[in-house]
Amino acid sequence: MSLEIRSTRTLLGMRTIKPMLEVTPKEKVVLKQQKIEMQIQRQAPRVLIDQSQCFADLGFKNTPEISAEAAQLGRQRASDYAGQMAAEGDYLTKIEQGANVGDLAAQRVLNDAKSDWNIAFAPQSRPQVEVQGSLNLDWRVVEEMMEFKSFGRNFNFHPGRLEVYVQQYGKIEINYTIDQRI
């Protein structure tokens, strides 16, 4: 006769549930469309370029300018000639003191032969440029944009816990066997 004993251990299981805090705000946001007034005042741009002085440097002039310049030149030459004639008259009054008409003629020839040569780049003056025009923007906000109201917050707390359970129960088995060999 034999006795057979078998035992099984008890196994425990654990499950953890984490704590959780829920916060839900009670707020109200009211958005309003902003009312904006805008006024635009503009004057179309214009570019004014005056090249009359550049053309005058090249000799291209309009009729009033030519007339004014010719009149000025005529007055200047008449004044210069009157001065020259007066100087020659004064010189000739001193003939008895040794003034010579031939010297006077030679001086006139030499004065007429003098010429100034010069190199110049044309035009020498720049054109006058004037830009006209404007743009004026005027903004004005008529209404407020946002309204915010708070009514507090809700807090929901779910505590954590630890659950312990039996995964496998322990047991003892005892078997009694009879030997048949006897």
Task: Describe the protein.
The protein is an alpha+beta fold. The chain has a domain at 1-32 and 150-182. Helices cover 27% and strands 46% of the residues. The chain contains 3 helices and 8 strands, in the order E-E-E-E-H-H-H-E-E-E-E. The strands form 4 sheets. The protein has a two-stranded antiparallel ribbon with strand order 1-8. The longest helix has 30 residues, at 63-92. The termini are close together. The model has no long low-confidence stretch (mean pLDDT 82).
Radius of gyration from CA coordinates:
60 Å
Task: Quickly count the helices.
Answer: 3
* Order of secondary-structure elements: EEEEHHHEEEE
Number of strands: 8
Distance between the termini: 10 Å
Report the average pLDDT across residues. Answer: 82
Beta-strand fraction estimate? over 45%
Helix content: 25-40%
Report the structural category. Answer: alpha+beta
| Largest sheet data | 2 strands, antiparallel
What does the overall shape look like?
rod-shaped
Spans with pLDDT under 50 lasting ≥5 residues? none
Main sheet strand line-up: 1-8
